[in-house]
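S.,

Sequence below, as promised.
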Amino acid sequence: MNAVRPLGAALIGIVLVALWLVLAPPIVSGWTDGESPVRGESMFTLAIFGPMLLVGIVGRRIGAVPGKLFGDDAGRATVWGIALGVGALLLAVGYTWLAGTLVPGASGLTSVSLMLGILVIAVQVAAEELLFRGWLQPQIAAVIGTPGAVMLVAAVFAALHGLGGATGGLAVLNLMLGGMMFGLIAARSGGIAGAIAAHWGWNAGEQLLFGLDPNPGMGPFGAVLDLDLVGAVRWGGSDQGLNASFAMTAALAVIVVPLALRRGSTKTA
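The prediction came back faster than expected:
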């Protein structure tokens, strides 16, 4: 009976989020029609991820998840997380450069609305990490153990991103590896501060530093650099960019494998 409540609550949460990701985007897109790209993207992100943040908060409270949400040493975990997230991204970008698929884009240097973009991405990744690694992972880990929970939640993370447009086996694999990286960081640090930082470091770096998402071109918040990925799809030359590339697979594996093999006990978020 002790396992029924947390697993049941987790399943309900997953179903609610899946339904939200299917039903809400077309409705929210209608609300943002006619808005400027920056305002529209900001409104869309807040409208989609705000409720997900609420689900994570409520689910964690109902499940009485033990431990501190951000861990015992949130500052150190944040620095560690940013280093891992940005480091993995730099590896992936480096691999695309070696493969010859990384090229300058058509646009020049821009910093318009970059600060707003930093905040919007922070809201998005905070909602996802609270939901997946702050609530679902420790809740499921209490029943099947941390290694199984990291894998299972990463699989759910990848599957739900599929509802957002990720397609193809390699993209799904990369999303699962990303979910495993965030899950292992949360498990090792005992909270989600490091996972949020790693997730933010990757997303903000990809979008606002290198201008690689969307591919080709830049998002509404602009980017410090405007780089595109062209040529072979397996090295990023598609509209999914790094997400559907071997470069991302290799870079994440460099981080995930040592984290998974690292000795020492994990902590409960």
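The mean pLDDT is 90.

Coffee later?
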